[in-house]
Amino acid sequence: MKNLRGKVAAITGAGSGIGQALAVSLAGLGCHVAISDNNEAGLDQTEALVASMGVKVSAVLLDVADREAVYTWAEGVVADMGQVNLIFNNAGVALSETVENMGYENFEWLMNINFWGVVYGTKAFLPYLKTAGEGHIINISSVFGMIGVPTQSAYNAAKFAVKGFTESLREEMAIEGYNINVTCVHPGGIKTNIARSGRFGDGGKAGTSDPVKAAKMFDKAARTTPDEAAQIIISGVLKNKPRVLIGADARVIDTLQRLLPTGYQDLLVWGAKRRSK
Ligand SMILES: NC(=O)c1ccc[n+]([C@@H]2O[C@H](COP(=O)([O-])OP(=O)(O)OC[C@H]3O[C@@H](n4cnc5c(N)ncnc54)[C@H](O)[C@@H]3O)[C@@H](O)[C@H]2O)c1
């Protein structure tokens, strides 16, 4: 897809951060947008931002962990907009807790959104992308889908799963000969609300259960703005890149993982022990 003008993009988690920036940037390129989020205030804000940009917009309050609701949304997008060409499976949440301390409720909450939400979005929209004759599926993983990090086991599990799922999907689309491209996105730290709206359990010696402290640490580490992230994702889509890394931190982590595929773990343990002294 070389041009997004007149195309229709569906975006989950569009009420904040990367999803909101994607909606605004896509609308700026003349792409109609179907936005969804489970946060009504955020969704209204994004709808207001794109409303005056001369493209069609539809907004639906939606929990991506609700499979039936995602399928109903996909059907509704096509009914409203006539077709759909791109699905950005972006909605996600954060959770910090050790494996030992993590209850299944938190683990399942995260997997249902960060992994199953991506699967539902992909499978619900796939038939409509085929019908449109030109489609692109963009799944948001993370640099935490490339390396394991203490207190992030659930998030790591979901984001590694998104990577595997998305890479397999890309191969299948090519084998079937469908005109559907697939991109897996691995952002480094992006300055969004994700840490502030996340859950913080007992992170043992490596973590903090103080959400204010955690949000401060995240803000310090996150260097890229959501607008920059959206531009990089859209540029990757237009070039049909299989994988998009966002930020210098993502490139460093990618290199580290290649150079020290298991040794990076020793570095993370060393760093966590030093910080906890
Ligand atoms: N911010 C980062 O540093 C970073 C890094 C790597 C990956 N990511 C990923 O980027 C994606 C976007 O996150 P963000 O940083 O913009 O965070 P954000 O918190 O600013 O935005 C996430 C949006 O998803 C929505 N959401 C949460 N649960 C939902 C649900 N069950 N149903 C529908 N919507 C839901 C939230 O309401 C919010 O509007 C996520 O998948 C996240 O894991 C973020």
Description of the structure:
It is built from nine helices and nine strands. By secondary structure, it is of the alpha/beta class. The strands form two sheets. A seven-stranded parallel β-sheet has the order 3-2-1-4-6-7-9, sandwiched between helices. A two-stranded parallel sheet has the order 5-8. Strand 1, helix 1 (17-28) and strand 2 (32-37) form a beta-alpha-beta unit. Helix 4 packs parallel to helix 5. The longest helix has 29 residues, at 104-132. Nicotinamide-adenine-dinucleotide binds next to helix 1. Nicotinamide-adenine-dinucleotide binds at residues 12-13, 15-19, 37-39, 42, 62-65, 90-93, 113, 140, 142, 187, 189-190, 192-194, 197, 222.
